[in-house]
């Protein structure tokens, strides 16, 4: 983009950081005043406006972004309304020559981007959409015959082959040129992103939104956790994951920054070739894979990628769905995960798979119901990741787990929470049970239950389904669509 003395608007979207922000770098490089703006427009998000937990995070992230901008002589202008109307109006008000922004990949966001670009160009204002927060753009990587990938391992191999060409992360600008007069803005509080009834104490105790919080999380992970990540990330009671997912979703840290951080040493103890660092980079690539799929198969946010699953005999069971949402299924590892989610806005990834599998296979409830609940309750609710995760679990998406693989939640709990530490934390009514019974309290004798202070069906629910019967029912349901698929 050519240098100019006219103002440039930086439209912040899902890139709420100052470092390694290509749009901000490009705007400052133009030489004129820079006007940072965020537009609150949930209607532009189509069927997926931010959920309650995401709105809480967004409020605090915007607050901290504004503070960081002010240190550099700028500020965040907040406006509300359709972006295709708000951005061109702001450009006219500022007499801006250009608007720059980072790409978003969700179908509705892509439509909004095109509408904004058309409106700006109609008014003689340059529109520049730059790379988004991925390692590689979805169009930059494909199979040998030019098709989108639908299996992760070859995608991962192709991405690794290209990873040597990734640009280095850039520093935040020291100073951001300000306009002679700042345009008006609405107050952050006026967006009502925080709930009127405060249920967010657990979120506030668990997270520090914003770029500084992302840097701190990345530093702690690189220095203390990444060395045991390859095994520790499967143990929900262990602090063995990066907890970077919400920071990546809101763009408080870039995928490149996370990638390169894993290539550095961790407190002098971890090398780039360590199994933990390699496993972490694979997870960053999985995030790229999710966005790759969503861009190439945009209908997958609500429709199964494998068409035969459109005929799957899902059940409607409002009572069972509510029990799952509340963490009252009677299966301790499932209930622990659902309660962790409600309290912290996050759930350990291994437990996400167990809880999701329970919903779609034990209860035969549509994966879309689970995706909606996660969307509203997760602070890292990301459409691409959420879609891929649920379709993978339901067996109807790309590189999906076979539908006939039905997790036994009791065995999963015994394997990944052997001493019951995770269950005891989130299902405290079971805390006094011995390790041998913590994952199947219904097998305890009346004396053992009394000693632990438990009355099944009162203080803690009995299992809402029998595992063996639920597994058989799930396999029978799968057989219906399998026979349909092979019928000549």
What this model shows, in words?
A five-stranded parallel β-sheet has the order 3-2-1-4-5, with helices on both faces. It has helices at 22-29, 52-71, 83-94, 107-122, 152-162, 201-206, 211-225, 229-232, 245-249, 255-263, 275-296, 318-326, 332-344, 349-362, 367-377, 383-394, 409-416, 421-426, 446-451, 467-486, and strands at residues 7-12, 34-40, 77-80, 96-102, 126-130. It has three domains: 7-132, 3-Layer(aba) Sandwich (Rossmann fold), CATH 3.40.50; 133-165 and 212-296, Serine Threonine Protein Phosphatase 5, Tetratricopeptide repeat, CATH 1.25.40; 307-486, Orthogonal Bundle (DNA Cyclobutane Dipyrimidine Photolyase, subunit A, domain 3). Mean pLDDT is 94; it is low at 265-270. It is built from 20 helices and five strands.
Q: What is the CATH T-level topology of the largest domain?
A: DNA Cyclobutane Dipyrimidine Photolyase, subunit A, domain 3
Query: Strands of the biggest beta sheet: in what spatial order?
Result: 3-2-1-4-5
Give the percentage of residues in beta strands: 5-15%
Which radius of gyration do the C-alpha atoms yield? 24 Å
What is the topological layout?
Elements: E1 7-12, H1 22-29, E2 34-40, H2 52-71, E3 77-80, H3 83-94, E4 96-102, H4 107-122, E5 126-130, H5 152-162, H6 201-206, H7 211-225, H8 229-232, H9 245-249, H10 255-263, H11 275-296, H12 318-326, H13 332-344, H14 349-362, H15 367-377, H16 383-394, H17 409-416, H18 421-426, H19 446-451, H20 467-486
Parallel strand pairs: 1-2, 1-4, 2-3, 4-5
